[in-house]
Amino acid sequence: MTLEQAQRYFVDGQRPRETEPINEEQMPALADAMPQIVWSARADGCLDYYNARWYEFTGFRRGEGGDESWEPILHPDDVQRCLDGWHRAVRTGAPYEMECRLRDHRTGQYRWHLGRALPCKNARGMVKRWFGTWTDIHEQKEALRALEAKSSALHESDRRKGEFLAMLSHELRNPLCSVVNAVDLLRTEKPEHRAWATEVIARQAGQMTRLIDDLLDLTSIDRGMIRLNKEPLDLADVLDRAIETTQPVVTQQQHQLATDYPRRALFVEADPARLEQVLVNLLNNAAKYTPAGGHLSLRATRHHDELAVVVQDDGLGISPEKLPEIFNLFSQGDRSGRHSRDGLGVGLTIVQKLVELHGGSVCASSAGAGRGAEFTVRLPAATTKPPPPHPCEA
Q1: Residue 279 phi, psi dihedral angles, 5° rounding
Q2: Phi-psi category of 334—alpha, beta or left, where left has phi over 0 and alpha has psi -120 to 50?
């Protein structure tokens, strides 16, 4: 039966001609065969018919339903919007269209539906009845939401990559400028300039080497090219070497570094060089983001089968909105608002990836800007102990 046939039958009271055989049972049977929820309402908007899909979806018994049956199955956030739209359509006689979430009694879950209704009018343009459907569009909505989330993530990644390339250019250009100036001075062949120029070239070449090493490490990790040379270790030995490596930075900034970890008690199976790299990175970050004369601490403990290493500072802290993305690639970790001190934003990403390669995890916490930060590395404890140190090494 076409919409025009239904209109003549329900509104004008005209039965189809002999060439269009129909009886009163055909319309409900046709509606029950449809996959959508089908309903109809009087001219005043009062609903008086539902097809079989309605009862399957809502759990109501045949004959139950009406205006009052809609509100309980609508999502609370959609009730007012849905009802206002329907009342407006009834008042104006305009077609009704709305996306709402309806509760499926079989699962208790809300599913997105597209609701549509058309007014059937008589020859004088008066609305005599409404015919409507609700079509399940939940999968389409979820797919669209996932696509939008992926698009947003790609846009954010592209933005960070652009910032990273700009920062990389800046970080490489500055030392290169210093090297060029030093080379120009060397060309003057003045003895008093030689020592200064040589020191500048060595320092800036070292800085560029560290930057490039970070980039190479990140690329190698992402491509699965890094192989850890694990061995049983006393964690205290690795912590000692990390402190020794970062001591010049700590001393230069006039920080106080407190340590608290036992010896011959914290054993881990790890790559000593890579684990030291993780700890040096965290200690350098703590020193860098703490104003001169600050306080740093490095402590390590064991809890059951897990070791925890905590690097803490009382420095610039991390804002709440930045904290969830602090380990993201190209995240600049702007804890102070001074971008010149932020670096390339790959160091913490490398830390996270190296820790995960060791079967561990790392997390960051902070009470907010200006209230310091804390980084905790968790590693599985070793099942075997390393051999005792040689007497000459003790």
Answers
A1: -70, -40
A2: beta
Contacts of residue 192, Cβ cutoff 8 Å, sequence gap at least 6: none
Closest Cα to residue 122, out of 8, 224, 284?
8
E-strand stretches of the chain: 37-42, 47-50, 96-103, 110-121, 127-136, 231-234, 256-260, 267-270, 295-303, 306-313, 361-365, 373-380
Cα 182 to Cα 23: distance, rounded to the nearest angstrom: 99
Residue 335's alpha-carbon distances to 66, 162, 320, 371, in angstroms, are 58, 20, 11, 10
> What are residue 204's phi and psi, to 5 degrees?
-70, -35
Backbone angles phi, psi at 373, to 5 degrees: -145, 160
Q: How far is CA 376 from CA 42, 208, 238, 303, 389, in A?
A: 66, 29, 16, 13, 28
pLDDT digits (tens, 9 = 90+) for 342-363: 455 678 988 999 999 999 999 9
Residue with the larger pLDDT of the pair 14 and 276: 276
Alpha helical stretches, state H, 73-137: 79-92
Which residue bears the tokens 């597209």? 114
**Using the 8-state DSSP alphabet, how is residue 74 labeled?**
B
Within 10 Å of residue 381's Cβ, how many Cβ atoms? 15
